Amino acid sequence: SKFWALAGIKRRAACRRKTAGRSYKSHNRTMKTNITELSHFTTALQNYLADYHPHLLSNEDFIKTRSEEAAQMYEEARQDGESIHSAMILANEVLFSGLWFSKYKTILSIMESDFLTIPENKRPSFALKMLNRCKPIFDRYQIEDDFETRSEYSLLCWELLGAIQNYIDTDGIQ
Q: How far apart are CA 122 and CA 74, in angstroms?
């Protein structure tokens, strides 16, 4: 079944992560393949960050490192006989690890549903500003990739709603 196949893929991914740094340099890969894979993962990560974590988009070291790790995972999975699809699943786990939950998108969603008076073209920049101001609220929660599915998520949203409203009442939208 698909569940057991995915479980096997994830188990093999965990084993690969433990040995990640050791085997990458030993593979004889062509420059063309390496650049193509790396370019794919870099572009995918940049596109994702633009939509969900724009504050990380300027962190070139993070993007480079994460893209290289994903390309490495993909290459190792393919060499281990995984299908292209399975290798991509494993690589994407590495590429987007810790990024599935978006503080920025959470704030933006609250603004889109509860602060309709904020002009649509000002929401992204205002959400970035609020991201920094709401850091103490986010720090009170143990946020992981699955945070949106946990009961604390609705409490976080209520706290953020109050913080955004207080900010607007005090400082306006600017």
A: 39
Looking at residue 174, the DSSP 8-state letter turns out to be -
How many residues can be counted in the chain?
174
The single-letter DSSP state of residue 55 is G
Kindly calculate the radius of gyration of the chain based on its CA atoms and give it in whole angstroms: 20
pLDDT, tens only, 60-104: 999 999 999 999 999 999 999 999 999 999 999 999 999 999 999
Q: Give pLDDT tens digits for 9-35.
A: 444 444 444 444 433 333 444 444 455
**Using the 8-state DSSP alphabet, how is residue 56 labeled?**
G
The CA-atom distances, in angstroms, between 174 and each of 10, 130, 133, 160, 169 are: 46, 12, 14, 18, 12
What does the DSSP 8-state code read for residue 172?
-
Torsion sign (Cα): 89, 90, 96, 100: positive
CB atoms within 10 A of CB 136: 9
Nearest CA-CA partner of 73 in 128, 122, 16, 31:
16
Whether the Cβ atoms of residue 95 and residue 44 lie closer than 8 Å to each other = yes
